[in-house]
Amino acid sequence: MSPRKDRAGGRGGIREAIRRRRTVFVDAWRSRLWPVPALGVVIAIVAGVAIPELDSALDAHMPRPLSAYLFGGGADAAREVLAAIATSLITVTSLTFSLTVVTLQLASSQYTPRLLRTFAADRFVQRTLAVFLGTFVYALTVLRTVRSDDAGAEFVPQIAVTVAYLLAMASVLALVLFLGHLVRQIRIETMLRHVSSDIEDTADRMLDLLDDTPDHHFTPSPPGEAAVITARSSGFLVEVDEQKLLAAAVDADAVVWIDRAVGSDIVAGVPVALCWSADAAGVPLPEARLSRLRERVPAALRIGIERTATQDIGYGLRQITDVVIRALSPGINDPTTAVHGLNSCSATLCKLARYRLGHRHLRDDDDALRVVIARPDWPDLLDLVCGQPQRYGANDPEVMGRLLSLLREVAWSVVLPAHRQAIVDQLERLRTTVAGQDFVDVDRHRLDELAGHVGDALERRWGAA
Q: Which residue in 435, 257, 407, 403 sits closest to 325, CA to CA?
């Protein structure tokens, strides 16, 4: 990796910061259930006001062939149609919302509460609610424009009532599609696919691919005179603004070390960063520059009430691992789901092995190190996937066998010696766990064979087991 590729300054860094800020905004918009339905309601109000005005302007000039396809009833009939549409749509919306809540409850209890964000971000559910609420509001808005009096003067917005009818038919179709979509969404395979896709999107956006050149960016240890920077609020670290951090470090002629990775829980008043002078080793940072850093560095760290996949590399694997260990709990006892979850973890770890993980370095225009940002390394992610499933599934030979198969699969994908050593360590732990279980001879022999396959893969890939 070239030094320039790790630099966040310059025009490329500004474009990258804008792109990441846009990604954060889009993720915040998508992960909430209300924005799209609210937008649908606003559009419905505008249409409910504008289309009757169009009716009023075109009634006298409406071609007869066209008017034959429009609503042809009187004012009373128009009121009945619009009232029926409004009444039925609010009922259907209540049913849809109830089904969505039941699905969220089922996903939370059966799999993991951390999947609720994925359901809330489902575009199909959001758009379906927007169609239902929009049709309801549109029908009510048009209903107020229908007029009649004893003198015989009346106004029936034919185009508007016809549009209301078409929207009602679209809502019926949307209801059928929504039910089918809900059945697909609640399947564990579908949920795992969504989470895996989020992990890949985050990796593509946040990480650089490994190349054939070694990484010369050595991560220094913080010196003894490093000053502490504390957090302003409690929660989860959900975003690090690299551009702001780099600008603050350059202005203060300092090096800033963010020692908490995105996704970590943060407590107000507890250290989240270290900083020291970049101009001379062993010289404490002047108080004026330190004061500016203590103002600007926490402002570049966004704290939220929940973890998100925007910059959090390990959040998706945390979700899948939670599904695995929940499936292994005595109350659910579903090892097949646990194996499915480990399948997704294996595929994801193999893909993440192509990226450069670990600490991220930001450098100024003179190629001087200014910011070090903590980030999980691949061995950390492997331990996240294997640790708890190994503990809670130790007495299930199928789960232990899938963990050994996972190690064999990732052994063929890793390219760094540190990753190989992580696999060797996990293999030894699994062998120790298997040896301590009371398995029948057939299961023990199969697990021993799978452990041998891991060693064979390491030997063929690296030349040593």
A: 403
Is 196 within the bounds of a domain? no
Residues 6+ apart with CB under 8 A from 86: 136, 139, 140, 143
Q: What is the mean pLDDT of the chain?
A: 88
- How do the residues of the chain divide into helix, strand and coil, expressed in percent and rounded to 5? 65, 10, 25
Distance in angstroms (rounded) separating the CA atoms of residues 162 and 142:
11
Do 7 and 249 touch, CB atoms closer than 8 A?
no
Residue type, 31: S
* Nearest C-alpha neighbor of 309 from the set 194, 187, 190, 191: 194
3-state secondary structure (DSSP) of residue 256: strand
Q: Specify whether the CB–CB gap between 141 and 50 falls below 8 A.
A: no
1 found inside a domain: no
Strands 369-373 and 254-258: parallel
Q: For residue 385, how many other CB atoms are within 10 A of its CB?
A: 26
Residue 156 and residue 73: Cα distance in Å, rounded? 8
| 24 neighbors 310 (Cβ within 8 angstroms) | yes
Least Cα distance to 314 among 222, 225, 195, 226 occurs for 195
Q: What CA–CA distance (Å, rounded) separates 184 from 188? A: 9
Q: Which two tokens stand for residue 407?
A: 């190690």
Helices and strands counted in the chain (H then E): 16, 12
278 is written with which tokens?
């970049």
| Backbone phi, psi, residue 303, to 5° | -105, 130
Give me the domain span that covers residue 309.
214-378+385-391
The per-residue pLDDT for range 189-235, each reduced to its tens digit, is 998 999 999 999 999 988 999 874 555 556 778 888 899 999 999 99
How far apart CA 304 and CA 58 sit, in angstroms, is 53
β-bridge pairing 265-266 and 208-209: unpaired
Q: Verify that 321 and 443 share a domain, yes or no.
A: no
Distance CA 106, CA 15 (A): 41
Q: Which of 285, 233, 231, 232 is nearest to 255 (CA)?
A: 285
- The pTM assigned to this predicted structure is 0.84
Q: What is the DSSP letter of 244?
A: H
Same domain for 328 and 462 = no
Find tokens 């009373």 and name the residue.
76
Q: Kindly state whether residues 167 and 220 are assigned to the same domain.
A: no
**pLDDT above 50: residue 296:** yes
